[in-house]
Amino acid sequence: MSQEKKKTLSRKGWVLVGILAAALVMTAVWRWTPVQEHVTPDALADWAETIRGSSYTPLILMAIGKTIEEEREDEKEE
Fold first, then answer.
1. Domain residue spans of the chain
2. Burial environment of residue 8 by CB neighbours within 10 A (0 to 12, 13 to 18, 19 or more)
3. Which of 2, 4, 22, 48 has the fewest CB atoms within 10 Å, i.e. is most exposed?
């Protein structure tokens, strides 16, 4: 296996570990803090409405799109 392929696999492994760790932290925060009282479907809908009306929404969407595009390019190079 080439060194480049090992680096890519290693990086993907760390990304997966990071995602799992973030999910565990979010679960713990939800379970053992008052967050569950504040993050409700109505609160999320209000937040989405605020974002929809924000002048920063196009920038946020472009950043998300660029991130997805870069990930797809990385996958094609493998």
1. 1-38, 40-78
2. middle
3. 2
